[in-house]
């Protein structure tokens, strides 16, 4: 797979070691000890350091494209606001609900949305999700609560756009509010490219968009998957309606707590990632 990366990753100084690469996807029968549906795929292990070539083609030092993935730090003042909520002390959903029902929480959301609005294209409405609270030590952590299964690598469909419009769907910023690092697992090509690689008839709207990935993973099991580590009070931005991905909080001992906003988050080409860190 010696091609340029369709999806680039934008890091801040000193975070290059946050990336790892897996040698593709493997079909599994269970995830985290719970049986899953047929045709469920997760990254193969082990996760390895990227070589110089992989770094050069994956990491963007220049212009940020809308569908690229970014790792950012929250500004110090916003970290302080979250610290005051004592979210990291939550040990169950009741603790989370107590915080979410408080007026202090509403104020926190307002301040966070104000911060994010500077990077939101076209005044697109920013949608705030509920806090996510999950168990520690989950290798692949997206869970379909209606069906009671972990779903493995997948595409989000909050927006539900047609495959040809998904490159313009809202992307997401997901802030790690827990005690320990968590991970974004992702491919560096879009669902449209996957469809082309398997000659999928993408004009047929009857096709289930998730079946594209399942066919892709069966045909190209060695296509690499990447992992980005997100430390507490850092966030990733990713077009999760356009890129096959999953989350992980493997090897953690504390609950996974994170907060997602959907918008059209984009960083202008002249903005250094360092500027982001010092914005107040
Ligand atoms: Fe997802």
Explain the overall architecture.
The chain is of the alpha+beta class and 280 residues long. It has a single domain, classed as Sandwich (Jelly Rolls), CATH 2.60.120. Helices cover 23% and strands 26% of the residues. It is built from seven helices and 16 strands. It has helices spanning 52-58, 76-85, 93-100, 103-117, 191-197, 209-219, 273-278; strands at 9-10, 19-22, 25-31, 34-43, 48-49, 69-73, 127-128, 132-134, 143-144, 149-150, 171-176, 182-186, 225-230, 234-238, 245-248, 256-263. The termini are far apart. Mean pLDDT is 91; it is low at 269-280. Bound molecules: fe (ii) ion. Fe (ii) ion is lined by residues 142, 154, 156, 240, 245. The site of fe (ii) ion has 5 residues, from loops.
């Amino acid at each position: 797979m010696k091609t340029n990366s369709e999806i680039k990753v934008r890091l801040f100084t000193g975070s290059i070691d946050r990336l790892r690469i897996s040698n593709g996807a493997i079909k599994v029968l269970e995830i985290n000890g719970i049986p899953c549906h047929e045709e469920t795929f997760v990254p193969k292990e082990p996760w390895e350091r990227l070589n110089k070539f992989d770094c050069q083609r994956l990491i963007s030092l220049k212009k940020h494209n809308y569908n690229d993935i970014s790792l950012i730090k929250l500004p110090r003042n916003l970290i302080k606001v979250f610290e005051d909520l004592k979210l990291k002390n939550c040990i169950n959903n009741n603790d989370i609900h107590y915080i979410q029902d408080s007026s202090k929480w509403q104020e926190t959301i307002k301040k966070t949305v104000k911060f994010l609005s500077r990077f939101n294209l076209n005044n697109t409405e920013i949608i705030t999700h509920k806090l996510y609270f999950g168990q520690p030590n989950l290798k692949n952590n997206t869970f379909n609560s209606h069906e009671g299964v972990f779903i493995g690598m997948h595409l989000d469909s909050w927006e539900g756009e047609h495959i040809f419009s998904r490159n313009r769907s809202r992307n997401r910023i997901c802030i790690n509010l827990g005690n320990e690092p968590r991970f974004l697992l992702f491919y560096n090509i879009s669902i449209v490219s996957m469809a082309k690689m398997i000659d999928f008839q993408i004009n047929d709207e009857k096709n289930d968009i998730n079946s594209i990935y399942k066919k892709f993973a069966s045909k190209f099991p060695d296509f690499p998957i990447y992992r980005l580590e997100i430390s507490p009070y850092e966030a990733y931005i990713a077009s999760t309606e356009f890129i096959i991905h999953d989350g992980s909080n493997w090897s953690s001992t504390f609950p996974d707590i994170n907060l997602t906003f959907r918008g059209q988050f984009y960083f202008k080409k002249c903005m250094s990632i360092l500027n982001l860190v010092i914005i107040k």
